[in-house]
Amino acid sequence: MPMIRAVIARLAGSDRVNFLLTNAFPRRLVTSFIGWFARIEQPLVRDVSLRLWRLFSDLDLSDAAETRFSSLHACFTRQLREGARPFVADPAILASPCDAIVGTYGNITDGRLLQVKGFCYRLGDLLDDEAHALALAGGTYVTLRLTAAMYHRFHAPHDCVVTAVTHIFGDVWNVNPPTLRRVQRLYCRNERAVIRTQLAATGRAVTLVPVAAVLVAGIRLGFIDMPAGPARKTRWSAACHAALRKGAEMGWFEHGSTIIVLTSEGFSVCPGIKQGSTIRAGQALLQMMPLPAGSDG
């Protein structure tokens, strides 16, 4: 087992090999197959699949609500024990919506965000909505990448009202660093959902963009019915009015991927947030600065 892990680590350490192994195949076809396969509840298939997953990742189920699962998919989308992810209570703090590795972050300048060093992308392309992008001008963004072994559900970062959801069909490139360094505008190419919210107390705008990836083209939301079947392969948008408390579950990935958190002006990244660091759902991510006198939020 240690020898196999060492070989895997060596292969994963090569950018080019990693990129080819995780992208150079019919991504949509394989993703659809894995979506079907992961739901098989036959005990032998389930047990072998889970063993292989443990071999290829640092899967930790110590905080899971259940430790036995009917299928690989049930393990992917597992829930946690009550209280396993306490959300910071400070009303001035926007919490991380998910477990993740922190990627790029900073101010939204000239409508552009950093993918990796040397690659930027337009916010209007990510959101597929220039007016929405303009409303977030001067705001802040943080990119959060979920790995395969992580908890895959995501939560409301603050007391908020979801005002609209847009689902944008697209590709399913891997979202790991080797791919981000090779595929320009990757987040704008992949399937994604745009979740628009307003903070309950101030009305400030916070948008979450869950981005799908290879083997994980399923984004599910718990507060609104999303399209299924052929309808899912088109651009879909709907207004809604879903009030969520801080920490309430918003949805989940079928495996792991990325969430980009976007805010309007008046937020700063919390101390301790560094690229490459690990954060858990509920921990401090962004801090709200006081509203200017006379501002309506």
Unreliable stretches (pLDDT < 50, length at least 5) are none
> Major beta sheet, specifics?
8 strands, antiparallel
Broad structural category: alpha+beta
Mean of pLDDT: 88
Question: Helical region count?
Answer: 9
The helix/strand order is: HHHHHEEEEHHEEEHHEEEEEEEEE
Percentage of residues in strands? 25-35%
Measured on Cα atoms, how large is the radius of gyration?
19 Å
* Order of adjacent strands in the largest pleated sheet: 11-7-8-9-13-5-2-15
Task: Provide an overview of this structure.
The protein is α+β, with helices and mostly antiparallel strands. The protein has two domains: 2-76, no CATH class; 93-288, no CATH class. It is built from nine helices and 16 strands. It has helices spanning 2-13, 15-23, 27-37, 43-56, 72-76, 123-127, 130-135, 177-180, 186-189; strands at 93-95, 100-107, 112-116, 119-122, 140-145, 153-155, 160-168, 192-199, 205-211, 219-221, 236-244, 249-253, 258-263, 267-269, 278-279, 284-288. The strands form four sheets. An eight-stranded antiparallel sheet has the order 11-7-8-9-13-5-2-15, with no helix packed on it. The chain has a three-stranded antiparallel sheet with strand order 1-16-14, with no helix packed on it. Strands 6-12-10 form a three-stranded antiparallel sheet, with no helix packed on it. The longest helix is centred in the N-terminal third of the chain and has 14 residues, at 43-56. The protein is globular and about 60 Å long.
